[in-house]
Amino acid sequence: MKSTLKDVSIVIVTYKGDELTKNCLDSLEATCGSDPQIVVVDNSPSEATRLLVASYPNTVYVSSPGNPGFAGGNNRAMPECDRPYVLLLNNDTIVRTRESIERLVGFLDEHPRCGVAQGTATLKDGKSLAGCGSYLMPFGYMWAPGFGKEDDVCNATAVRFSAIGFFMIFRRSILRNVGGSLFRTHFWCYYEETDFCHRVWLAGYEVWYVKTPPIIHLCGGTVGHFKHVDIMERYQKNILFSLNSNLSLLSRLFILPCFTTLLAIHGLVHLLRGHADVFVADMRSLASPIRNRPKILAARRQISRIRKVSDFKIFNAVMRLPPFPQLVRFFLSNA
Asked: In terms of domains, do 162 and 278 share one?
């Protein structure tokens, strides 16, 4: 039987963002009615947010004290989700037509090996793309084709290494096959969806970008509450944790020296430029696998239990270098 929006739970995590959340919920109500279940996780619990959520049909409010971040907030929503498909949606997004979500549901119905899919999103100007998934590069970093511009590569549905978490749907049933949980809670925020997608690949499923009518992503509605250097450090630490945990020994021997060398160069260049805070953040990131060794070893044991696919097979499907001009810009931006 063909799935509909009644088969979808939509999870929205908010942190001091009632205005953005209201706009997002208004757009869902106008386009989807009461068909999907909506779960709003409040990472800064307030009575105002609870009352806001209560004013919408078929919507569940989850109080999440202590701000566990995007990762922890979404994890807390999972027990409330009662539909076969779960859509993660940032609160700073606007859904303009129900077809944006229906196409994702239809794609999962038609492609049983697809565990995760991301739809199309534009930035607030309504024209520039907000990304269409990411490829993995041989030195451990990712690149997102089409971000910030109109790009032909995003006009076609295609396989990707990672979906982007602001508009990402997955089969709830796969959670038991990827380690039992959605995100690694200690990631807090940044790279958690890529680590999840990597585990999805390892468990024998695929990740796809699906061309849909675009939603609007306002970008950075919550990130403005936090310092850029702190965000960068957390992102780098999470990448290193994920690569150390999910890659086989042979892959680690090749990819990790490349990644750490680039990160060390980035820190040294910024030190010479007088950006000591960036240097310190990079050095703390480089040291993080040592401090996190017990967690990494536990994660490796988990991966050995769920692994169904070799790294080589995954790399063959989703490891790509960007066009040369983009590659040059990448290295310059990391210098």
From this structure: no
Per DSSP, what are the bridge partners of residue 216? 94, 122
When pLDDT is cut at 50, 70 and 90, the band that residue 268 belongs to is: very high
Residue linked to tokens 């066009």: 323
CA dist 55 and 14 (Å) reads 16
Domain assignment present for 334: no
Question: Across all residues in the chain, what is the average pLDDT?
Answer: 93
Mutual orientation of helices 293-306 and 228-246 as an angle, nearest 10°? 50
Mean pLDDT of 286-315: 97
Q: Which helix (H) or strand (E) element contains residue 279?
A: helix 276-291
Q: How far is the CA of 20 from the CAs of 32, 51, 166, in angstroms?
A: 18, 15, 14
Please give the Cα distance from 289 to 106 (Å, whole number): 40
Which residues contact residue 21 at a Cβ distance below 8 angstroms, ignoring those fewer than 6 apart? 12, 14, 40, 49, 52, 53, 91
CA distances from 152 to 22, 156, 198, 259 (A): 33, 8, 25, 29
The count of C-alpha atoms lying within 13 angstroms of the C-alpha of 71, restricted to the half-sphere facing its C-beta, is: 18
Count of the separate structural domains present in the chain: 2
